[in-house]
Amino acid sequence: MSSIWRMPICLMIAVALCLVFSVSGSAQELKFGNFRCLLSGDEVRTTTIRGIENQKVCQIGDEVTVDVVGGDLVSWEAENSREHIAEKLILSLDGHLLFGNYARVSPDGKRLKFNLERDPAKQENFASWLSVLPRTRLYDSQKKEMAVVLETSGREYGSGEIGIRAASIVHTTVAAILFAGVFLLFVILTAKTDLLRDPGPLPDLGKRPYSLGKTQMAAWFFPIFAAFLYLWLVTDRIDLLTPGVLGLIGISSATGVFAAAITVSKQTSEAANRSELIKQRQLLQEEISKLNQMLASDDVKNDPAKSARL
């Protein structure tokens, strides 16, 4: 009798042990979800993306909040205290790890917070952002796959889709107003002054002609200025102008300087010629005056031979 029940009892014990281990394993499985950026309190930042309203969005400088939706953070840390460290959890965007943006655990252990910030001083962090930001937009938000990843192992513990905006609307608006203000000031100065005209004396009619060198410098300045503002907004750095752009600035500036030098040289030569012609005119006027005086004298009037010679 005992041999008959031995096999079923062993099977029941094995099944029970499997259930116990599976339950305990599932209890230790940590997972995060509900990715969002809060404006104030519990108000979630939302926007319209591709015509769909109330889409969750984050912009650079926000604080990302993530909830524990599976497992337990304390049990996860206790499972492997050497590797499972909550403060080593970081975010990733489309698979690019944002090194240096470490998690902060809430007092109840049910929520993580991350600062969505760029750190140009940390090369790995900045390199990660450079991989993500060129594919984002300033005003419009673009969908990204955001995930919580353990930095030491690269293991992912939950992900979600969220909109990412490369720069805050305030900073982008300020940059746009700055560019528009500089351009408007340039237009006003061009219309009211001789900012783009050749130097030198005014002609008898009209104004001096426009300087090709100055116009070229102005034409290159505004695209480069716009590129500088864009790079500053996206990367938070001001030292990212490429050698090609710097070369264009140098060529444009050199062209303007050479054009100004040629104009000054030409004007100096013209001024010298004008001065020489004025002296010759004065001498001729003096000669003419002397001849007129001689013609008007009594000796010349009374002597036909002298009058004929003059």
Provide structural commentary:
With 310 residues, this protein is an alpha+beta fold. The chain folds into 2 domains: 135 residues, Immunoglobulin-like, CATH 2.60.40; 124 residues. The chain is built from 8 helices and 10 strands. The strands form 2 sheets. A 6-stranded mixed β-sheet has the order 2-3-10-9-5-6. A hairpin with a 2-residue loop joins strand 2 and strand 3. The relative contact order is 0.08. About 3% of the residues have low confidence.
Output the keywords.
2 domains; alpha+beta; single chain; rod-shaped; Immunoglobulin-like; four-stranded antiparallel sheet; 8 helices; 51% helix; 310 residues; six-stranded mixed sheet
Global Rg:
41 Å
- CATH fold field value of the largest domain: Immunoglobulin-like
Structural class: alpha+beta
**Number of strand segments:** 10
Question: Helix content range of the residues, please?
Answer: 40-55%
Sheet bearing the most strands, described? Answer: 6 strands, mixed
CATH architecture of the largest domain: Sandwich
Query: What is the count of DSSP helices, taking H or I runs of 4+ residues?
Result: 8
Q: CATH top level of the largest domain?
A: Mainly Beta
Shape: rod-shaped
Strand content: 15-25%
Low-confidence segments: 19-27
Q: What is the domain tally?
A: 2
User: Which sequence of SSEs, written as H and E, runs from N to C?
Assistant: HEEEEHEEEEHEEHHHHH
Mean pLDDT: 77
Terminal CA distance: 165 Å
Order of strands side by side in the largest beta sheet?
2-3-10-9-5-6
